[in-house]
Each structure stands twice: as structure tokens, then as C-alpha cells.
Amino acid sequence: VPQGVIPFKSGVIFTQRARVEAPVSTILPTGSSSDLLLVLSLCSHRINDAFLFAVKSKKKKLQLGVQFVPGKIIVYVGHKRSVYFDYNVHDGRWHNMAINIRGQTVTLLTSCGKRRVHADLHFKKDEALDPHGSFLFGKINHHAVQFEGAICQFDIYPSAKAAHHYCKYLKKQCRQADPYRPNLPPLIPLLPRDPSASPSIPPRMEPSRQGLKNLTTAAPSL
Q: Which residues fall in a compositionally biased region of kind Polar residues (predicted)?
């Protein structure tokens, strides 16, 4: 298990100290298109603006990535090219979802495909991922903020055919993830409860983050 990653019954927990990187060629077949399906089961433990993962070319250009900011999911399909969905991952709950990237359309699927939200790219994306590039999990680069949370499932399918039936691909333990939630200290909510409040990141959010307990301090009790 890599440093900063804590195993538990239904998956792993990523802490601030996690460092997970691999060549793209070890994650996806050589010449893979950026058309693919992500099947995710996760629970965020800290409110921040971290990337769940990033695929970068040999020249360090972002080719693919998913970022979680308060109130939104941003999907990057090229350097400085992205679409976003109004969806809050940072609510302390488990989220099972699929992100389907196909052609010039990105679709977020929840509730086992019953809820679908489409976003058009309005530009031509890169056809293939650089096999000599790198895959980083939990951040966009080594100096960026780290995604902190529990991961039950993170699957990448080169074919997007299974998008509308993604729950068939969910692991059994991920459908029952809540009973297996590790005994972690409660997090202090940073977002206002007012529905009319803006979901954007407050400009002075960093000092507020210090109020959260570092998950690494909870590691010995797991």
C-alpha cells in the first residue's frame, strides 16, 4: 500500500500524504482514445478543490481529468478545456456515479442511470492519450492540494457502451458502502446551509481548512 493510503473493508482512504502516480501505458491500453467511461464510488472527507485524477502528456499538458470543487464536478478533456456539472461531492455522503465521455459530449449519470446530465464540449478534443504521459491520482501535480476521502471503486472502461447500466458494474461492497464507513472524526462543514449561497470557493477559504482535523492523525485508530 502506498504511503498515505489506508486500506479499510470496502476500499482505501487517501490522506494528505498520498502520492500515487503511474505511466499512462500501465493504466490504459496504448493508443487509447479519450472516449471512455468512469465508474466511481467514493466519499470525500475534506472540502477542497482537488482533482480526483489527472492524465498529463509527456510535455505536462493536461489531457484528461476530473476535479471536485464545492457544488460542482469539472471534467477536463484537454488543456484548459472543460465542462462542469452542478453536483456536490463534498457533503460527507457516499456517491456512486458514472462519467461518460464520448465524441463531443460528456454525461454525468447518477441513480443507476436514471438521472443524466449532458454537457457539450463545443470544440474538438484530442483523439488519443499520450502513452508516454503520466497518470496522477488525487491531484493535478505534486504541488497541488490532495483529494482526501474513501474510494470503494474507480474503474476506467475504454468503451462507453455500459454508461446507462453502470450500476451493473458496481462492486457489491460499494452498493453497501455506508455500513462499512470507517470510524473517522466528524468534519466541520465549511459550506453555508443557505440554498441561495454561491457554491464557488470563498477567496479566503484556506484559513478555514485549518479547522479540519488532519485525517493522518486518525490513521492509528483505524
A: 211-222
